[in-house]
Amino acid sequence: MTRKSDIMSLLKTELERINGGTDSRVAIPGTPYTFKTTVNKVTKHFLYLEQLNDRIELCFTPSTEIREYFGAGLIYSTIDVHIRGYLQTGDNFDEPDNLLEDIEFIINGFRFLRQYDIEDARILGIVTDEGVFEPNRIVDIRINIKYQVDPVI
Predict the structure, then answer these.
(1) CA 37, CA 97: separation in Å to the nearest integer?
(2) pLDDT > 60? residue 1
(3) CB within 10 Å: which end of the chain, N or C, has fewer?
(4) Which residues pair with 26 in a beta bridge?
C-alpha cells in the first residue's frame, strides 16, 4: 500500500471509533472523551442520500496529493479529504452538531497518533444542510492532512 492509502485506512479506523463509548487513549489530547453519537458505517467512497441503510453513516474521499520538496530528501505531502455524514435524525435536532463535535475530536487527535509520519491534521471547513433534507441531515467537513513522504532513492 502507498502511504496515502495507509493514512486513509487509518482515518477510516479512527472514524469508526465514534461508537458512543469513551476514548481514553493517553496520547490524544482531550481524553477521556465520551462520544455523543454512534456511527453505524464508515466507507472510503462517496455515498448518496438514497443509498443510506443505517441511522448514521460517514463516507469520505481524498483529493489529489500536493507535494512540497525541501531538499536533502525531505518531502511533505498534503491531502484534502471530504468527509460527509448522513443522519436519520427524526426529531433530534442536536445530533448533527454532536456528530460534528465527535469528528472534530477524531481529526484534532489524528496528528498525535504518530503513525505514517503524519505531521498535521486540521479542519478546513464545516457545512450542514440546516434541516433542508429533514428527516435526514447532511454534514460536510473538509480536512487537510500533512505527512512526510519517504524519499525515492
Answers:
(1) 10
(2) no
(3) C
(4) none
